[in-house]
């Protein structure tokens, strides 16, 4: 019984394991077949790649340029002479110039030229290879920055505007499209008749003159501009390129390149907005010299109006300018014009005071004002605009009683009465107004009519002769 049970048990185990053994053998055979086919496929692909060598360069540019074989954290020719880096600039536009912030914004193409033998590659056609911004992070490029810059960025629409071109001998062209906002130290002592000199300075940040030498690639011709560059308030007189050195006490001497441009301001805008209105206000203040000295409201209101207008012009000009501590050319003109307006008010104050003193002295001597028209008559003329003849107004009551009768009589006869008092007043107004103004004028007004224009004309001749 025991032997029978053991035989049955071993029989079951053999039946169970035999199919698995056969299956494992089959699997091993399949794996061997697959591995042999994969090996054959790889050999065929390798043979095809060797036959078609044009597909190697685009797919394997890192192997072609030997990027993995070199340490590009170090500059070319490390330990030897400094690497020369040529610079070429194409100015696209000058976007804005701000007097308040004392800066300018410029967009341009910045191109670097240098030679890195580590990037040389074999070529039968001697043609260069062009890459985009993805290769920049893997190789060495000059670390040029802009001195005194406030804001700067590389354009990235639709992709980063960066181009890298490598020749077979290792010569490299690295081009960027950049917008920079940099400081411009302006002098406003002659504003708005000024000329400003601004410059954009380029320099290496890490490498001094012992490691890197910056220079203009084509000398003075390295700086090019578009013909359509124009500004609203300035005329670009000159663009020039220059070079120099900068010294830092902790790191040494550095090569520095300068992009210089001269800007001359268009003055016609300020002539219309500032100079001409100020000139008109000064001339308007002279009108008070021709108004009767007894017309106090007219002369005082005219003087106050011109003073307030000049204050408005000065405030508007100051709001659009930086708060500098020196006097500008426009300040000289506006404040002198304000002085002329202010002196016209002072002139009338002197005339009014001296007239009152003279009349009081005359009244104390004779008891009446001789040689002059009655004060009440002149004041009435100044306020209502009509000349009041003393002889005509002797019997105002009788005139008022007979005025209606005279008017009715004039209607029936078809012509106005020759003896009408109102008509007499109108005729006397036309004949005596000019004589009253001239005879009732003070000597200070007479001199002011001539002296003020002459002095102001001389001031304008001197001012425009100095600043223009």
From TrEMBL:
Catalysed conversion reaction: chloride(in) = chloride(out)
Signal peptide boundaries: 1-23
SUPFAM superfamilies hit by this protein: Neurotransmitter-gated ion-channel transmembrane pore, Nicotinic receptor ligand binding domain-like
GO cellular component, one term: chloride channel complex
Highest taxon of source: Eukaryota
Membrane topology: Multi-pass membrane protein
PANTHER family hit by this protein: NEUROTRANSMITTER GATED ION CHANNEL
Family listed: Belongs to the ligand-gated ion channel (TC 1.A.9) family.
Protein name: GABA(C) receptor
Lineage: Eukaryota, Metazoa, Chordata, Craniata, Vertebrata
């Amino acid at each position: 019984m025991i032997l029978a049970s053991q035989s049955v048990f071993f029989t079951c185990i053999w039946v169970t394991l035999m199919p698995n053994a056969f299956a494992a053998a089959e699997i091993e055979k399949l794996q061997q077949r697959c591995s042999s086919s994969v090996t054959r496929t790889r050999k065929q692909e390798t043979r095809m790649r060797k036959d078609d060598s044009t597909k190697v360069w685009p797919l394997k540019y890192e192997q072609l340029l030997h990027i993995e074989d070199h340490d590009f954290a170090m500059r070319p020719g490390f330990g030897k002479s400094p690497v020369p880096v040529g610079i070429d600039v194409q100015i696209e536009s000058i976007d804005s110039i701000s007097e308040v912030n004392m800066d300018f914004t410029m967009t341009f193409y910045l191109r670097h030229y240098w030679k890195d033998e580590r990037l040389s590659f074999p070529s039968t056609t001697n043609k260069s290879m062009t890459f985009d911004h993805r290769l920049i992070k893997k190789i060495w490029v000059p670390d040029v920055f802009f001195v005194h810059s406030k804001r700067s960025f590389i354009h990235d629409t639709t992709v980063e505007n960066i181009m890298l071109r490598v020749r077979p001998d290792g010569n490299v062209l690295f081009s960027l499209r950049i917008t920079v906002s940099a400081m411009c130290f302006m002098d406003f002592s002659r504003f708005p008749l000024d000329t400003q000199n601004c410059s954009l300075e380029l320099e290496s940040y890490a490498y001094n003159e012992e490691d890197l030498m910056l220079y203009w690639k084509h000398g003075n011709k390295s700086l090019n501009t578009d013909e359509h560059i124009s500004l609203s308030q300035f005329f670009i007189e000159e663009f020039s390129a220059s070079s120099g050195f900068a010294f830092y006490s902790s790191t040494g001497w550095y090569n520095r390149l300068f992009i210089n441009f001269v800007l001359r301001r268009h003055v016609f805008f300020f002539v219309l907005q500032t100079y001409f209105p100020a000139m008109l206000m000064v001339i308007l203040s002279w009108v008070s010299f021709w108004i009767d000295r007894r017309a106090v409201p007219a002369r005082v209101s005219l003087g106050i109006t011109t003073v307030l207008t000049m204050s408005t012009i000065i405030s508007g000009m100051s709001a659009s300018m930086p708060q500098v501590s020196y006097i500008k050319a426009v300040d000289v003109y506006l404040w002198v014009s304000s002085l002329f307006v202010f002196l016209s008010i002072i002139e009338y104050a002197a005339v009014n005071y001296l007239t009152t003193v003279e009349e009081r002295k005359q009244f104390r001597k004779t008891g009446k004002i001789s040689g002059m028209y009655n004060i009440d008559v002149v004041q009435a003329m100044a306020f209502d605009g009509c000349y009041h003849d003393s002889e005509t107004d002797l019997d105002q009551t009788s005139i008022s009683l007979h005025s209606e009768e005279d008017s009715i009589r004039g209607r029936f006869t078809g012509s106005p009465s020759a003896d009408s008092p109102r008509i007499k007043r109108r005729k006397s107004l036309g004949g005596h107004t000019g004589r009253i103004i001239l005879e009732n004028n003070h000597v200070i007004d007479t001199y002011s009519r001539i002296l003020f224009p002459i002095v102001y004309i001389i001031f304008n001749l001197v001012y425009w002769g100095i600043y223009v």
